[in-house]
Amino acid sequence: PAENLVAEQGRIFLPEDPDKSITIPDLVAAAQANCWGSAIGEASVKPDACPPHFIACFIEVNVDTRTGRVKVVNAVSGADVGTPINLNNVEGQITGGMHMGLGYALMEDTCFDKEQGHLMNPGFLDYKIFTFADMPSVQPFIADLVEPTGPFGAKGVGEGVTNPVAPAVANAIFNAVGVRLTDLPMTPEKVLKALKEKKD
């Protein structure tokens, strides 16, 4: 019976005859070759805490008041992720979050047919995202702190990096031209409309 088997140091064997053993990779390969089904395991854990990560975001923009175009020229994003286990990956995650956030802030929008409810821009030809050429210089910085409840002192860094980007862009636009935009994406048309309303 399976409950009599022992798994140690990558091998499975009976305790009374440890010389008769098989490696776990060999066992999995045999199971797949003989259609025994998948190897499935279950586990659960209740962490001591789920500490949030904190993000700070700073954006510098140029706003063309004739066309309404907003160009992001510089971006700084800082993250409290506890102890960064892999610094390059954390910095990449911060830069990727900035990319997503800028897309949400300035160009990504879904358009639906009002009568049928069909998505009108399902591909990247019509659903615009930030390209490499659109991206500003991104300067990530990391608050290297120890989180006692996290693995190896770490906390998460993921979707949270995206969250403050659009508000930071809106604040930068307000700082540049004095109009407050609250509807995403902040397209040139919306910028021009807000500038016209401010002038009137």
Automatic annotation (TrEMBL):
<protein>
    <submittedName>
        <fullName>Molybdopterin-binding domain of aldehyde dehydrogenase</fullName>
    </submittedName>
</protein>
<dbReference type="GO" id="GO:0016491">
    <property type="term" value="F:oxidoreductase activity"/>
</dbReference>
<dbReference type="InterPro" id="IPR037165">
    <property type="entry name" value="AldOxase/xan_DH_Mopterin-bd_sf"/>
</dbReference>
<dbReference type="Pfam" id="PF20256">
    <property type="entry name" value="MoCoBD_2"/>
</dbReference>
<dbReference type="InterPro" id="IPR052516">
    <property type="entry name" value="N-heterocyclic_Hydroxylase"/>
</dbReference>
<dbReference type="InterPro" id="IPR046867">
    <property type="entry name" value="AldOxase/xan_DH_MoCoBD2"/>
</dbReference>
<feature type="domain" description="Aldehyde oxidase/xanthine dehydrogenase second molybdopterin binding">
    <location>
        <begin position="2"/>
        <end position="136"/>
    </location>
</feature>
